[in-house]
Write a structure and sequence with these properties.
The protein is an alpha+beta fold. The protein has helices at residues 5-11, 58-64, 97-112, 120-137, 152-162, 174-179, and strands at residues 22-25, 29-32, 37-39, 78-79, 82-86, 93-94, 147-149. A three-stranded antiparallel sheet has the order 1-2-3, with no helix packed on it. A two-stranded antiparallel ribbon has the order 4-5. β1 (22-25) and β2 form a beta hairpin. α3 (97-112) packs parallel to α5 (152-162). The model has no long low-confidence stretch (mean pLDDT 87).
Length: 194
């Protein structure tokens, strides 16, 4: 859970930070590649984040067709042009990431076991529809393809329906289903049993 503790400590001068590349550690801290010696009680190595598909050969990267707003996949998991390649947890952002990734992995296992219906043409059409829909209202960012966020309940429901699992997680209480927050406990007992 993110807090404002670091920001507040920086503002009052309790914490100082430096951005740069570390050449090596010393007894008192670090020496940067530029030769600056910095005393430090704690060193946090924050590398930033940028998606990179360089682990794939050129032919696979060509088929992936990563666009300026991301990699569009069926159920944010499988590429319709490369049926034996899947992404679990990397092309999907929700509010309940761990739960979502668990459901996503279970869905993929069932898909590859032939227990989830899959028609490539229908999957391609759905990916095209979702891409067009996202481009009508979401800001143009390099991660737009992976953003589910506030639509996570709908996304979870689609995975559950695909697997033949009841997607309503609160029984007959329709109002609770519609108006209360989804939490990980609502998905207890699905993975490994569905």
């Amino acid at each position: 859970v993110l807090t404002y503790d670091l920001r507040d400590k920086v503002r009052v001068g309790d914490v100082d930070w430096h951005v740069g590349a570390i050449d090596h550690f010393t007894q008192k801290g670090v020496t940067t590649r530029g030769g600056e010696e910095i005393d430090a009680d704690v060193v946090i190595y924050g590398t930033g984040f940028s998606k990179n598909y360089d682990l794939f050969d050129d032919a696979t990267k060509q088929k992936l067709n990563v666009e300026s707003d991301g990699l569009y996949l069926y159920r944010n998991t499988v590429h319709t042009a490369i049926p034996n390649l899947a992404f679990v947890g990397s092309e999907l952002a929700t509010i309940m990431n761990i739960t979502t990734y668990g459901l996503q992995a279970w869905w993929l296992a069932k898909l590859w076991a032939g227990e989830v219906p899959y028609d490539r043409k229908e999957a391609e059409e759905e990916v095209a529809q979702i891409k067009a829909w996202k481009r009508t209202w979401m800001p143009d960012t390099p991660a737009r393809a992976s953003l589910i966020l506030l639509h996570q309940t709908h996304f979870h429901d689609r995975l559950l329906k695909d697997m033949g699992v009841a997607h309503r997680r609160r029984g007959a209480n329709v109002l609770a289903e519609l108006f209360t927050a989804q939490v990980s406990q609502h998905y207890d007992g699905i993975i490994g049993k569905a």
